[in-house]
Amino acid sequence: MASCKEFNELISLYIDNELDEAARSEFEEHARSCDCCKEEFDDIMQTVNYCREIPEEEPPEDFKQKLHSKLVKCKAEEESKNKLLTIRNRYIKICSSIAAGLMLVFLLRGFWGSNFIVGQSGDFSSTQSIEHKEEPSGKWDTKAYRDQSVLEKGDIMSNSSPSDKEKSEAAESNKADTYSVQNETVKNKSSESRVVTAQDASKGERNNGTETVTIQGTEEKFIMNFSEATSEQVNNADTSSSVAMAASPKLAGLAVASVNTSSITILSDKPWEESDNIKKLVGSYGGNIDEMVIATTFDERVDGADTYNKTPAEPVVLTARIPNDQYEKFLEALKVSYTPELLSVGEMQKVDNSAKINELTKRLEEVNNKINSEKNTINLKELNELKVEKEKITADIENLKKVMEYTEIQLTIGSK
Amino acid sequence: MSDKEKYLLLKSKNGDIEAFEELIEAYQRKVFNMALRMIGNHDDASELAQEVFIRVYKSIKSFKEESSFSTWIYRITSNVCLDELRRRKNKKVISLDEDIKAEDGDIKRQVEDDKPTPDMVVENKEMRKAVNDAINTLSADHRMVVVMRDIQGLSYDEIAKVLKCPEGTVKSRINRARQELKQILKSKRELFNSEYVK
User: Are A377 and B32 in contact (CB < 8 Å)?
Assistant: First the structure.
């Protein structure tokens, strides 16, 4: 045995007969040669013996009787709770089938509705975006550089950006209209080019396809965040078919499981100053600005240096959020302020949140079940962890639902 | 698990109270004694043991026969006891040795002395009381392993399963707990001897 410390660590294993033959004899050898360790061993052995001598005691006489009445009470409570649950489940089933039916009707109407919007929009250009970004992290987020490549205008029809694939599913029904608008873009604005935000596959970003008009040249973007939470919520939205959502009775309670997004482009002599007016206008319709991107033109970029040349004519991109019921009024106000040559309104897109909400709801159900089934067997710390997760999921769902009440607008203010 | 126990378990899962009571009959003493050693007094131990069985009854539907029924019951018992100890830790506990503060000076607490008089009994009971007191001063984790190993006689493997931790952790925890207990008893004995000499 190397040391007394080692001997000390083995005392309990020796007492409990957990040592193999060799270790045992080595242990005994050390005890014979070291009085200090022998004393330590004797003391612990004696302590263990004292504990072993503690006799088992009988539970009090009324133990069984008390327990029995508690069990009877507990059973009665469980039964009444189960009855209530059965009634509630039946009620939910009936309500959800009614809601599913109603939603199907709304959806069918919605398709005609969106055709109407497309018909009105796009005098000379079309912009559309479905974005999924990483969580914004700071005021001036230099990490948010995105590689951008400039494509010629002819690419609009032939090239499909990564997001187009996903968009096509959601916007299948108005595909024809989308293309007609894009055709107009080509015809009317010969000087325009289309900037596609390249997808950084290694970072795992998705849906990063953004089409904007009026921005020329190779550019870098600085993203200024006004509201971190809300932009994240919208961007968390998963795209999937909105028809599938109607078929899912679980989601029937959610009248709108999608976020409306649209794109508006305004041309101005001084985009930077114009953006102040737009911000005021958005504010007056109960909306707010989540994010502002100033696209700056780089003269020369050396080894990732952050130097940039801010020119007065640089375009400004705002992400605004306006309550759904105020959106049409906001559009009217814009049309009053800007002539059709300066203003273009893109089609309305719906980013489906149903998959995300469905996933969260499922997880919430799992956590709830776990809390209910294991609350008696786990300790308070574990139970608290489950409760915290439950609160978080509930908050996430609430946030997602709240986001749906707003229309997200990508406002690009470009120079004439 | 015997066939009879399996049958009783099945019936208990359907809410049959009589079957449940028969099923837990064998565990009542064990659970009560574990609670008694963890908490230190009969009344509270009785309440806690009942709480354990109510929890077992409520969650018996979720009991999967992957672990043994006794391990599962011990796990619930240990969790109930640890929760109670944690709850008590947050409460103020009045020490019987502490003087009561009164306007006209401190008053000595008068506590009924339950020490028996015959010498032999006194020695035995004193020692047992000293051990019990020493166990009660251990931290909750150390107390738990000492109670399970040295009083209830559970194996290292069983304790590891009850506490859901590696056997290595159990081994070192038991060793540390015993050393701590030994130290407490030793200093008590020294105190007792020095008072006796006076």
Answer: no
Domain, as residue range, for B68: 3-90
B82 and B118: one domain? no
d(CA A163, CA A206): 8
- Please tell me the distance in Å from B109's CA to the nearest CA on chain A: 29
> Is B137 near chain A, with CB under 8 Å?
no
Contact between B29 and A58 using a beta-carbon 8 Å cutoff = yes
User: Distance between CA atoms of A164 and A210, rounded to whole angstroms?
Assistant: 10
B105 lies in a domain? no
Are the beta carbons of A215 and A194 closer than 8 angstroms? no
**pLDDT tens-digit series, residues B2-54:** 888 888 998 999 889 999 999 999 999 999 999 999 998 899 999 999 999 99
Question: How distant is the Cα of B100 from the closest Cα of chain A, in angstroms?
Answer: 33
Among B9, B109, B14, B144, smallest CA distance to B65 is for B9
Query: Are B86 and B135 part of one and the same domain?
Result: no
Hey, is A266 helix, strand or coil? strand
- Beta-carbon separation of A54 and B56 below 8 A: no
Of A63, A79, A377, nearest to B28 by CB-CB distance is A63
Query: Chain A: residue nearest B32 by CA?
Result: A59
Q: Cα(B196)–Cα(B177) distance, rounded to whole angstroms? A: 28
Say whether both B19 and B53 belong to one domain: yes
Q: Specify if B102 maps to a domain.
A: no
Q: Count how many domains chain B has.
A: 2
Q: Check CB contact under 8 Å for B75 and A377.
A: yes
pLDDT bucket at A383, cuts 50 / 70 / 90: confident
What ipTM goes with this model? 0.81
CB of A194 within 8 A of CB of A156? yes
Same domain, B182 and B123: yes
Q: How far is A384 from chain B (nearest CA, A)?
A: 12
